[in-house]
Amino acid sequence: MMIEKAKSYAVHRHSIANQTYDGKPYETHLSEVVNVVEEFKHLIRGFSENYEQLISAAWNHDVLEDTDTSYGDLEKVVGTVVADLVYRVTNELGKNRIERGMKTYPKTRESHGATFLKLSDRIANTRRSKRNGHRMFKAYTKEYPTFRYALKRGVLFADMWAHLDELYGYEED
User: Fold this and answer.
1) Per-residue tens of pLDDT for the chain, all 173 residues
2) Which of 56, 107, 111, 137 fits 129 for a cystine, CB–CB 3.0-4.6 Å?
3) Could you tell me which of 48, 72, 74 has the C-alpha nearest to residue 62?
4) What is the torsion angle, in degrees rounded to the nearest 10, for the CA atoms of residue 152, residue 158, residue 160 and residue 161?
């Protein structure tokens, strides 16, 4: 019930904002992120956030950043825990991707759930951009060392980091 409500809300908000993803309905991207959460759900044991909350956040992860939805509006629909996760992965303002990331990563890193969600989004974006030869793959590859440095914590989410390392052909020095 919670997941369906969250999904419906996210799809509606992105739809009225006329957003698309690679020329497809924005729901395409949201469902890809949800699929990554599903794929790596074995890593969320012991989180303060539960599975339903993480899936609900995955559906809504871009709603604050890409639509005119306020935190308060989102919180009324999905609750404080999910709204907080979405807030923590929402890019802060900045003059470029690097500045936005550097302002955003600290609040993301404070929460295991938010870090997991950010990794899920990055995996989904990287897979698609690499598969389609999209220009964003170059941008993701260039910023990956900073992204990794800012968010990686020991062995937490090792499977996800290993997958990203492989996608980017990244090797630690």
Assistant:
1) 899 999 999 999 999 999 999 889 999 999 999 999 999 999 988 787 899 999 999 999 999 999 999 999 999 999 999 999 999 999 999 999 999 999 999 999 999 999 999 999 999 999 999 999 999 999 999 999 999 999 999 999 999 999 999 999 998 76
2) 137
3) 74
4) 50
